[in-house]
Write a structure and sequence with these properties.
Blueprint (H helix, E strand, L loop, with lengths): L1 H24 L3 E6 L6 H16 L3 E6 L4 H9 L5 E4 L1 H9 L11 E6 L5 E6 L14 E3 L6 H11 L10 E3 L3 H10 L4 E5 H8 L4 E4 L3 H10 L4 E5 L11 E5 L3 E5 L4 H13 L1 H7 L8 H4 L9 H9 L6
Parallel strand pairs: 1-2, 1-3, 6-7, 6-8
Antiparallel strand pairs: 3-12, 4-12, 5-8, 5-9, 10-11
């Protein structure tokens, strides 16, 4: 009987050792990633990245959080509430320098990857008599969330087209999806929209898009190197049979500056090796290439990302 008890105890001890080992090996690093409001490009892209990284790397679990966008993401990162975030480079530049909405409260970070080109366009219904930026004066205009990156982008773009959003227009502070619905039902007369929301509006309503002038966009890029230039081809949007000149706002995935180099290296590697997975979930992401992901736009990369890109021969410095 004593022998039987001894062997049963030994078997139980061995099994318990295996279970403990499995639990140790199964430890998962939980990472929260800020995106933006529902319907926006940052949200759709962020959720796709999270899904593909989680599938490819079981030791990591990224939760894509719905937020107000770039400004809130950086503030939450500064308070250590987020480990990762998707942002527009201009807002990141403000945060690092401690200027504009981050005055006296700088937030530093490292870039993990540059993501797809990010264009917003100014949309009106075709029946509207608004045909240029100057025609926006006195009108009801959707300018994005009050605390989001899109709102800051909108204000900057209006400024470089001679519009003071506080004085010249009636600004409506709304989330991306909310603006699209408000434009369709006539609550507002114009809105700054993402490409996918513009497609959505164009699927049910005839639209017109306000194109930038050469002088205005050159002034913007010269004074704000975090922006690029982009031409949307004719017929990209239903019923829009002319090219549209617009800024590329850019999108960057960032991390806490203190994140371990090896962790960022693995994240970068996983994202680049799963670009096809991301594009299958979110079709616009097919524009992202490894070379593009390694390109700089105003903010410095994290050493872990640089290490990966250098190994791939993609880092040119």
């Amino acid at each position: 009987m004593r022998k039987k008890i001894f062997y049963l105890g030994l078997i139980f001890f061995i099994l318990l050792s295996f279970v403990k080992g499995d639990l140790i090996n199964a430890q998962v690093t939980q990472l929260s990633m800020g995106t933006a409001t529902v319907g926006g490009i940052l949200t759709n892209l962020g959720m796709s990245i999270a899904q593909c990284v989680n599938k490819a790397s079981p030791e990591v679990n990224i939760t894509a959080e719905i937020t107000e966008g770039s400004v809130e993401n950086l503030r939450l990162m500064g308070r250590k509430k987020l480990q990762l975030a998707l942002i527009t480079p201009q807002i990141g530049f403000f945060a690092r320098k401690g200027i504009a909405m981050f005055k006296d409260n700088p937030v530093d970070f490292g870039v993990v990857v540059r993501l797809l080109p990010n264009t917003n366009v100014w949309v009106v219904l075709e029946k509207s008599d608004i045909k240029s930026f100057s025609d926006l004066k006195g009108r009801k205009v959707g300018v994005g969330p009050a605390s989001g990156g899109l709102g800051t982008v909108a204000q900057t773009q209006l400024q470089f087209n001679g519009i003071d959003y506080k004085k010249d227009i009636k600004p409506y502070f709304m989330g991306a999806g909310e603006m699209a619905e408000a434009l369709k039902d006539g609550t507002i007369e114009a809105a700054i929209l993402t490409a996918e929301l513009t497609h959505l509006v164009a699927s049910t309503h005839k639209i017109r898009i306000i194109s930038w002038g050469e002088k205005e966009i050159n002034d913007l890029i010269t004074k704000n190197p975090v922006y690029g230039r982009y031409v949307i081809p004719p017929k990209f949007f239903k019923g829009v049979d002319y090219p549209v000149l617009t800024p590329d706002n850019g999108i960057q995935m960032i991390c806490q500056k203190e994140m371990p180099e090896e962790m960022v290296y693995k994240l970068t590697k996983t994202i680049i090796e799963n670009l096809e997975c991301i594009a299958k979930i979110y079709a616009p992401a097919k524009e992202i290439t490894p070379e593009w992901a390694a390109s700089e736009l105003g903010n410095p990369f994290h050493p872990g990302s640089i290490k990966y890109f250098r190994e791939r021969g993609l880092w040119k410095k």
